[in-house]
Amino acid sequence: MPARSWVEVGHLNDIPRRGARRITRPDGSPAIAVFRTADDEIFALIDRCPHRGGPLSQGIVQGRAVACPLHGWVIELDSGRAEAPDEGCTQTVAARLAGDRVLLALPAAEIAVKPCWSAA
Known about the structure:
Elements: E1 4-11, E2 19-24, E3 32-36, E4 42-46, E5 60-62, E6 65-67, E7 74-76, E8 92-93, E9 95-98, E10 101-107, E11 116-119
Antiparallel strand pairs: 1-10, 2-3, 2-11, 3-4, 4-8, 5-6, 6-7, 9-10
């Protein structure tokens, strides 16, 4: 497993409450959706619903879950698991706040080129 380091990707206020921002990655790896709950918790998932690959970053955050905009599957933000009766999961990415800065645990190779937000 490659070494990981905390990489700053933006600020808390860059993400709307109950919304997301999409992180494009310089190495072409799958995009990451960074979510902000109504209580200012931060979570990150690979931006792909396990059902049909829908863009989770375009979904609506409900509590600590996001509803996929394509077919309404509800994905838990902390685990990436689909809520029953649906089954499946998407990969989580470790995320944390340092003051108002949003940090993600990414492979060390991505530190040289900071990932950037794109509107979700």
